[in-house]
Each structure stands twice: as structure tokens, then as C-alpha cells.
Specification:
Helices cover about 45% and strands about 25% of the residues. With about 290 residues, it is of the alpha/beta class. Strands 3, 4, 5, 6, 9, 10 and 11 form a seven-stranded mixed beta sheet that branches. A two-stranded antiparallel sheet has the order 1-2. A two-stranded parallel sheet has the order 7-8. The mean pLDDT is about 90.
Length: about 290
Amino acid sequence: MTLRTLKIFVAVAEEKTMHAAAKKLFISQPSISQAITELEKEYNVKLFERLSQRLYITETGQKLLNYAYHLLGTYDEIHDFLTSQGNLHRLRIGSSVSVGTCMLNDIVNKMNAQNPYTELYVTIDNTSQIESLILNNSLDIGLVEGLITSPDILCQKVCEDELIIVAAPTHPLSKQENLQIQDLSNQTFISRESGSNDRNQFDQFLREHKIQIKKSWVCTNTQAIKNAVINGNGLAILSRMLVSTELKQGTLVHVPLKDICIKRDIRLVYHKDKYLSDEFLRFASICGVTL
């Protein structure tokens, strides 16, 4: 097995056909097929199922793919290091939407001031996507507030946030006192996309208490959610730090539930096998985390 073989394997896994992988790598399709066949024979494993002229990766193939991402990623980092001779470094940062909106700019500004020769690449997406990008080595480090499910990702607490229900001042629940969790049944909510909602602790809390809500809007954009709530189209579950300005201005109001407070940790996350470069450690330190 060589790096070339692994690159071919990754291309086939991503493109799902030998033909597409050959076009991507600019080599012949027979060479692609031969490399995969030899790899399977060498280790007596099945990496792909071939059905109706399409390839479906097996469980063994998926595990190999995870290893291949990190091995090839490490190789690329070594190549970048030697090419730049240490004069220029990069750090690929991922952030969930709330953190990216409210915290990340200050952290990146401090990083740029301390490390002018480090190139920073930032991706802001929901927590599940940030987790996936870390697992396939497309990101070096992340700051998220959602739930991480992979045992291969390590988490370090940075700070704490609170999830709250917000409404327009004209909403019927906005002026009710001693609101109970049951009062949320069948209320209309403006919702984040599934990759965010599935890991939202407040959503999980509602499911655990068998509270059924109506999700009339699904948005990937936080500002769109806030605008929909301000215009009276429903309630929303959002980070307190995301709506601090609207709460001060009175365009949104906090709808508190009696005896219920949903806190969550904002965490620095990274792959357990990740090489901790000087840039990586500096970023962690700015976030208040010592590794």
C-alpha cells in the first residue's frame, strides 16, 4: 500500500465511480481499477460493493477512509511545512453559527495580532458539519456549542452559554408569568436546520418531556430566524448571546420557563490524533484552554 494507492482509494470513495475518480486524478480508469483490486487482494478485504455500475463503500472501506483522510492530511501538512520552510503556517478553524457570530471575530483578531505569519481559514456551519470536517481532516480545530457524538473528537470547555425561548413583544406568551413547559405544546416555532436542531439541548429537553411543537419555518440563517420571530411568526430557541442586542432594544423578549434553565458549554474541539502545532496551541490559549 502506497500514498498513491490511498489517494486513489479516497477519490473512488468520494466520487463513487471509477470513471469519475479517474477524471479527478487525471489517470486512466484501468489504473484506478487495478489499484483498488490490488489493495483488496493485498489485505484480503472488500472495500466496495459493485451494484448496477455504482460503487458502495463497505464498513471496512469506511474505516479505511477515516484513516486515509488523516494520513493524507498529515502528509499534506508535512509537505506544506517543508515547502514554506517554516515561514508561513496555516490553521483551519471551524465554528458553529452562534460562536461564529458572537465570539470568533475577537479570537481571530487576537490570533492575527499575535501571529501575523499564520494564515487562518474559517468555516462557519452547524455543529454536525464542523464535526464531520474535523473527522475528515478538512479542519484543524473547532469552537462549537452543540453536542459532539464521535469518540474520536476531544472537547475542552471554553465558556458557558444559555439557550432561551424568545418571542415578539406582541406574542401571547410574552407577558405570561410562571410559564410551564406544558404551555409550549403545539406552539409554532421558527427552527434551525436538522444538523443544528438534532444537537440542540433545548430541543432534546422538549422531546424528553414529550412536548410537541409546530415547526413552521426551517432556516439555516440565524438573522432570518430572528426576523421571523420579530414579525410575529412564532417562537424560537436561540443562544442568549445571539439575541442580546434585540433583547436590549425590546424587539425580542425572553420567554422564561418556571424552574428551567438550559445551560450549555462552548467547547474547543479537535481530533484525538491531531498534531498540535504551535499555531494550534496559540489559538487554544487565546480561547483560554491549555493543552
